[in-house]
Amino acid sequence: MLNHPFLAAGRAVAIATPALGLTVLALSAPAAHAQFTVINLHQSGASHTMAFGGSGAYQVGNSEVGATRIASMWSGDAASHLQLPSPGFNNSAAFGAWGNRQVGYIGNGSTVYRAALWNGPANPVVDLHPGGSISAAFAVHGNQQVGAVSFGFVDRASIWHGTAESWLNVHPGSFASSSSLAGTSGDQQVGQVRLLDTGAFHASLWTGTADSWVDLNPDGAFESRANAVSGGQQVGMAYFPDGASGPSFHASTWNGTADSWVDLHPDLGPDGGNSEAYDVLDGMQVGMATVDFHSHASFWSGTADSWVDLHTFLPPEFLTSSARSISRDGAFIYIAGVGYNSLTEREEALLWTQQIPAPAAMTLLSLGGLLTARRRR
One digit per residue, pLDDT tens: the chain, 377 residues? Predict the structure, then answer.
């Protein structure tokens, strides 16, 4: 089962859809007019590639060569591609990264999945599967990994700390039929639960235990899910069946409660479209929005009006795109994702980058603003 958009993308080649000071955050968050540089990560010999996660200047995902899917790493360009080893398995994908750790699944064939932890391409994979039918890890922070374990058709939100034996079931209670975790910041975990009474999925927040569960589903939404968390902010989507333009998914942010919900859904014209946020960092969110019925990689900085269509930075042969993760180092912001190239007829891993203004430049900008304000007085 394992209801998660990244795992679905890893199973089939298709696109449906640490902390810094406040002054630096405000100045380094890209404005709507800011330019991004796009790098195609697709390496020679691969039939398809996808990037799902990143940490600092490197990205993780999977490559396909024939019928073999391989967990992969890149460091900013196609030539840097490395395989994450999974000896004895012919199917693997990496969904999340933090520091020198990467998580995802290993398996054989197209239906057997086991949650996996890597410590870079030079070290053996750690099999996190604690039992059950299938499992997958979707995010990592420090020594904490999160995901889900499926027992038949019942998923259980799961936390690990580096070994299969450390597995912790944080399924919230008898009122929910299934649950899964999609993101972690170490102290908070996010995902979704499926309610028994309605069958609807609700975006959810945990702080390490089953009893800590918080329902994030906003008022008026039939369903929702949370995909990532950072700095106390959660992101995902909420589904509204009776919107002004008909049913639609809305990219969403929360700050710990359902009442804190903020709608990131941009103005997409009379057809409305859908949107979803997949990752968050320092008040910046990335995901997708459908424009003219095509998925477009998207960037926000906390409001619907801040939406930036990252797809516009791609060559015209890309019909669709989606931004799956955002990370940064001291010099650049990195947004990893995937796009469909109509010329090559394949999914290709993509990387959007933007340089962070140097502290000296930001100081000069601030002084310039102060001087201008004084002159106006």
Answer: 566 654 555 433 333 332 222 222 222 334 444 689 999 999 999 999 999 999 999 999 999 998 889 999 999 999 999 999 999 998 999 999 999 999 999 998 767 799 999 999 999 999 999 999 999 999 999 999 999 999 988 999 999 999 999 999 999 999 999 999 999 999 999 999 999 999 999 999 999 999 999 999 999 999 999 999 999 999 999 999 876 556 799 999 999 999 999 999 999 887 778 999 999 999 999 999 999 899 999 999 999 999 999 999 999 999 999 999 999 999 999 999 999 999 999 999 999 999 998 765 444 434 344 333 333 33
| Collapsed DSSP state (helix, strand, coil) of residue 201 | strand
Residues 265 and 304: beta-carbon distance below 8 Å: yes
* Coil, strand or helix at 8: helix
The alpha carbon of 276 is separated from its chain's Cα centroid by a whole number of angstroms, namely 10
Q: Are 263 and 308 in contact (CB under 8 A)?
A: no
Q: What share of the chain is helix, strand, coil (3-state, %, to 5)?
A: 15, 50, 40
- Domain 5-13+47-376: top CATH class: mainly beta
C-alpha–C-alpha distance, residues 240 and 248, integer Å: 6
User: Residue 233 in contact with residue 253, Cβ under 8 Å?
Assistant: yes
Q: How far is the C-alpha of 217 from the C-alpha of 219, rounded, in Å?
A: 7
In 3D space, the residue among 309, 323, 316 whose CA is nearest the CA of residue 268 turns out to be 309
Q: How far apart are CA 335 and CA 346, in angstroms?
A: 20
Domain limits, the chain? 5-13+47-376
Picking from 322, 309, 336, 312, the residue whose alpha carbon sits closest to that of residue 94 is 336
CA–CA dist 160, 128 (Å, integer): 8
CB 306 within 8 Å of CB 262: no
- What does the block give as tokens for 341? 């190239």
Residue with tokens 């089962």: 1
What pTM does this model have? 0.88
Beta bridge partners of 4: none
Residue 374 CA: distances (Å) to CA of 23, 28, 353, 368, 370: 21, 24, 35, 10, 6
